[in-house]
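Lab notebook, design round three. We kept the backbone fixed and only want residue identities now. Task for the bench partner: fill in a sequence for the structure below.
Input C-alpha cells:
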C-alpha cells in the first residue's frame, strides 16, 4: 500500500442543489429502464417521464430484506424469468421536495454508473402510492458484519478490500459522482455545517474503513458525542494500542494518514500492486 499517488479533487457536479441533478435518459445509459427524471430547481417538483406503472404485473414481492425511514426493501421475483431482484419501495406521500430530489439523484446515478462493484439498476416504476426502484439482489452481506465476525483483517485481505473500494470510488468520481454516505465516521468538513463538502469525504471514509479493517476498532471513539466530534475535527487518532498494529506495515499506516487529513485539499491516497 504505497506509491503511485492519485489525488482526488472536487468537481462542480456534486448535486448539492437540486438544480444540478442531470436530465438522464436511461436508454442512453444502456440500462434496462426507459425513463428520465427532471427536477424543477425552483419548485423542486419531480417530473418522472416514461416510468412504468405496472410493477405488480411484472414482479412478485417476497421477504423484507431492509427498512428505511420512508422505504422498505424486498426481495422480488420477475414473473417472466423467475430471477430474483431487490426492490426499494418508497412511499410517495412521505416524501417532500428534497426527498424526491434525492431519489431522483439516486436513480440517475444508478442509471449512469456501469461498474461490476456498483449496484445495477434494472427498472423503475411510479405508481399511485409508491415508487419502485428495482436493482440486482446482492447476498454477500455488509462489510462491517464481516469485520465483526473476523475481528480484523490481515494486511493482504484488507489491501484487497481497500483497493476495490478505491477503484470503485475513483470510477464514481471520474463520472462526476460523490458517494458521501459510506456509513462510517463523518469527515471533518461535514461537521462544519457551513462548509461545502464533496468527493474528498469519500476518501476520509475509506481511511476510516482501512483503519478498522486492520485494527478491528475505529480511529475515533468517545462516549460523549461532542468529544467524539471534536476528535474528528482535529484528526485526533493514534495507531494504538501497539499490539493491534504489530502486523501492519509502515506503508499501510502512511496510506491511512494520507486519507485521514483534516483538510480535504490535503487528502489523497496511494495505490500500488
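Proposed sequence:
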Amino acid at each position: 500500500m504505497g506509491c503511485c499517488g492519485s489525488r482526488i479533487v472536487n468537481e462542480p457536479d456534486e448535486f448539492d442543489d437540486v438544480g444540478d441533478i442531470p436530465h438522464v435518459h436511461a436508454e442512453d445509459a444502456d440500462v434496462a429502464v426507459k425513463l428520465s427524471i427532471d427536477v424543477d430547481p425552483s419548485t423542486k417538483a419531480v417530473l418522472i417521464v416514461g416510468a412504468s406503472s405496472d410493477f405488480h404485473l411484472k414482479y412478485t414481492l417476497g421477504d423484507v430484506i431492509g427498512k428505511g425511514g420512508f422505504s422498505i426493501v424486498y426481495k422480488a421475483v420477475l414473473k417472466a424469468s423467475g430471477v430474483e431482484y431487490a426492490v426499494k419501495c418508497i412511499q410517495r406521500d412521505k416524501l417532500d421536495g428534497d426527498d424526491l430530489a434525492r431519489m431522483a439523484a439516486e436513480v440517475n446515478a444508478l442509471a449512469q454508473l456501469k461498474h461490476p462493484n456498483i449496484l445495477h439498476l434494472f427498472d423503475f416504476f411510479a405508481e399511485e402510492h409508491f415508487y419502485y426502484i428495482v436493482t440486482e439482489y446482492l447476498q454477500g452481506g455488509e462489510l462491517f458484519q464481516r469485520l465483526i465476525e473476523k475481528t480484523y483483517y490481515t494486511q493482504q485481505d484488507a489491501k484487497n478490500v481497500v483497493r476495490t473500494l478505491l477503484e470503485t470510488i475513483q470510477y464514481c468520481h471520474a463520472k462526476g459522482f460523490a458517494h458521501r454516505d459510506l456509513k462510517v465516521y463523518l469527515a471533518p468538513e461535514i461537521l462544519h455545517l457551513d462548509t461545502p463538502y464533496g468527493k474528498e469525504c469519500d476518501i476520509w471514509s475509506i481511511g476510516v474503513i482501512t483503519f478498522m479493517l486492520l485494527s478491528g476498532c475505529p480511529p475515533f471513539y468517545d462516549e460523549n458525542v461532542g468529544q467524539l466530534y471534536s476528535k474528528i475535527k482535529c484528526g485526533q487518532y493514534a495507531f494504538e494500542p501497539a499490539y493491534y498494529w504489530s502486523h501492519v506495515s509502515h506503508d499501510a499506516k502512511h496510506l491511512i494518514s494520507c486519507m485521514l487529513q483534516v483538510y480535504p485539499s490535503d487528502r489523497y491516497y496511494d495505490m500500488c500492486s
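Keep this in mind before ordering anything: The domain at 143-266 is CATH 1.10.510.10 (Transferase(Phosphotransferase); domain 1).
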